[in-house]
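Example: Fasciclin domain-containing protein.
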Amino acid sequence: MFTYIRSCMLLALLPLAFTACKHDELVMPDQKESYRLAGDFIKNNYDLSLFNAAMEYTGLAAEMNGPGPYTLLVPGNTAFNELGITRASDFLRLNKDSLKAALQYHILTRRLPASAIPANGVDIRYGNMAGREVYLTYASFPVDYPQFPQNQLFINGSYAVKKDVVLANGVLYVLDKVMKYTPGTVQDWLAARAEYSVFVAALKQFGLWGDMSAAGSMTVFAPDNEAMKRAGITMESLKALTPERYIGARLFGIYLLRNKRFFLTDFPAFAIIYGTTGVELSIEGDVYNYTLNATKNFGQLAPAEFTFGYKDPARPVLGVIRTVSSNTSRLTDNLTDNGIVHDMPGLVILPEEAQKK
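Written out as structure tokens, the predicted fold is:
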């Protein structure tokens, strides 16, 4: 249904022969004048021109001038640029119905001002026009300085760079990232993408593949084929990594965070709400621990950057033994019905470190 995401990722690999011009920032409504309807407001703001083009192509633009009420979670042009979409005509390559459903995912059929979102609420669910749910985290009051509210809003791994833009028929938020949702399971998501085929084969070989379709929630940091190759693992060499000789939970299971749903922006939110930016938890089925943290520079509006690593509790003096970091926004926060997938650009544990003794 949401095949437009895959198309966007293909577009992102194409050489871009043009760049966007600079324009004024988002034009806020003048309170002395009448508020505009959602469709008109988006149409008249250049920074939202790509979202407007997508709405016009799918027929949603006119609907957004209806009575509503609506809450629009609108990715700015830069967010679409990260997916390789830089001009309105790029949308013509995408399936219209799939694109419409993706846009509806960004629209709530209710008026939701920030004041109505629970302060310090984490992953609060709200239904959207697509019949699904989005996850809102509102990091309001810092644990150490509650008298200085920060009111940072995160939605499905995106950050609201502008909040509470009042419309005649609702309210609008501007996001720094397109929300990526694909119906189905994590297993479906990985199986549909050839760039993760070696990782998929490894999970199957070590009896971990079935977990990807389990009910509940999980977070997967998935090394792509190039990351596996850099660690010396290819489809051919994988045959020698047998479960009899290697600890599968350590070598590949470390990337499967069961019963956890982590958007990368959860961690900057946790830093405000709880005073911590990361976690250290045991690898299921192994004696090692994994470490995970993520940060975001709000001032520069940079993408969230995660760092994934591992520790051996039996050798605490070593600390975190190896880490892999990434801030490639277009490859993270891929939501499915039973979890989230983040691209992993490297392996933190090499085969020789997972050999059975």
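The chain has two domains: 4-110+162-179, 182-354.
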